[in-house]
Every structure is written in structure tokens, then in C-alpha cells.
Write a structure and sequence with these properties.
alpha/beta, 148 residues, 5-stranded mixed β-sheet
Length: 148
Amino acid sequence: MHSSSGSGGGSSPGGFKRSGGRTSLAEINVTPLVDVMLVLLIVFMVSAPLMQQGVEVNLPKADAGSLNQTEDPIVISIEKNQNIIFEKKNYTIHSLAARLASLATSKPGSQILVQADQSVNYGVVAKVMAELKKSHFTRVGLVTDPEK
């Protein structure tokens, strides 16, 4: 066996093998990977709150005092025994849906206030709010008493 210690076919000073005058890099460029991961992080941060299921409520904003209203708001009341009262009549959730659909065509964009007794089951209030959303009412508010 014969060993040669010449410059042909040996290793370069950096530990890379030379083949045909080219050196190969042994490091990985992670910059594109980091860029993609940051973009995905931003996309998920923006889209996560949008994936929450719920009823959209557009409450009026006021600094203090009463609101100046050009029209009287429409009031839907839910009594302690879960009776739904609208326009001085008792409604079931299904009959309320039909009435809200006709109201949406005659008075679109009306402000609706929901008054519910605090002991009423949350599911009943959620159903009324869902029917308001289905009828395309966006100006919906919940009526509460101020704490003293």
C-alpha cells in the first residue's frame, strides 16, 4: 500500500472535501424557515379570535349620560318564567323569529334592546340573540341596571 501526502485529493483547511475545485457548505440557512414560521404565527394570532363561536352584539358607545336617539328602540323582554314579550304580546322563540323577519324588512337597521330577568336561563337569552342575528339586526343592546 502506498500513501501519498500531496495536495491532490486531500482535505481543505476547513475540513471540506474538494472535488473539482468546489467546496460544499455544511451549514443550513434557517432564515427562510424563521420567516415562514413568523408569518404562520401572525396568521394564527389574527384568525384565532375569529374562530370563536358567538353572537355579535354592536353595543352603543357613550362617555356619560343618555344617548341621543332619533327613534325609539324596539324592546324585547324576557320574564322570570321565560315568557318572551314583544310589542305587548307573548311570543315563543319560533313565533318571535317570524315576527323579527317581517320587522327586518319593514324597519331595517333598527336598534333593539333585550331586557332579561337575571334569573332567566342563559340559553333562552342566547336563543333570542341568535334569532336577532339571523334577522340581520346589528344594533342590539342588553339592558342592565347600574350598580350602586
